Model the fold of this input.
Amino acid sequence: MADKVLEAVELSKSYRVDDRRITVLDNISMAVEKGEFLVIEGKSGSGKSTLLSLLSGLYKPDSGRILLNDRDITGLSEDQLAPFRNRTIGYVFQSFHLIPSLTALENIMFPAELNHDPAATAKAAELLRRVDLHQRDDNFPHQLSGGEKQRVALCRALVNSPQIVFADEPTGNLDSANGETILQLLMKLRREVATTLVMATHSREISSTADRILRLVDGRIDS
Ligand SMILES: Nc1ncnc2c1ncn2[C@@H]1O[C@H](COP(=O)(O)OP(=O)(O)O)[C@@H](O)[C@H]1O
Ligand SMILES: [Mg+2]
Done:
């Protein structure tokens, strides 16, 4: 068995809606192996985004623990967690989440600068070149198409050479041609930087290329 990079132990999460509590994840345990491409499947509303947010430390579970490289991150404060997350994790969102006031190059550099990386500019420029957007380095997000924005977002997720990349329906807002380009790039860059990839999707085509699939049904992993 390969090394575990991430482990979730008995995770539960519910949301309060008006005076009701909706349980979204119900006592989920799972692990991610180093280097694997894991797909989280499940219909809309099944808790895929919630699970990725918990695994990456963006949200706190109601109960349960998250271990990243055997370190329990569940109890860390946001101040402790933010730099750790920035170094270890890359995140690609369905709706890109680029910073509108920064250029493509600056968006990609941002996590590397937070990390005090003297090579931030060079790394960002190299990534832009690899996704064929080097001539758009000084464009702002509003000057880019959806597919181009997602290419920039991929570069940003990879600039710190994270151990794990989370991608939450990264092709969900793109047409099929742009979606295909993003997937090809993600797979290529992932191989080049040898990172682990955890992706939420309901695309059967994407799932078919995964090393392993976890399916969320009624707040549990259906296996
Ligand atoms: N911040 C929130 N407040 C209340 N309910 C939420 C919140 N975020 C998600 N939910 C609910 O939790 C369930 C799972 O959502 P989500 O994790 O986004 O699922 P998926 O990504 O699989 O579509 C849905 O019923 C959704 O409406
Ligand atoms: Mg979602």
Observations:
- The chain has one domain: 4-222.
- The domain at 4-222 is CATH 3.40.50.300 (Rossmann fold).
- The CA atoms of residues 131 and 151 lie 6 Å apart.
- The first helix runs from residue 48 to 55.
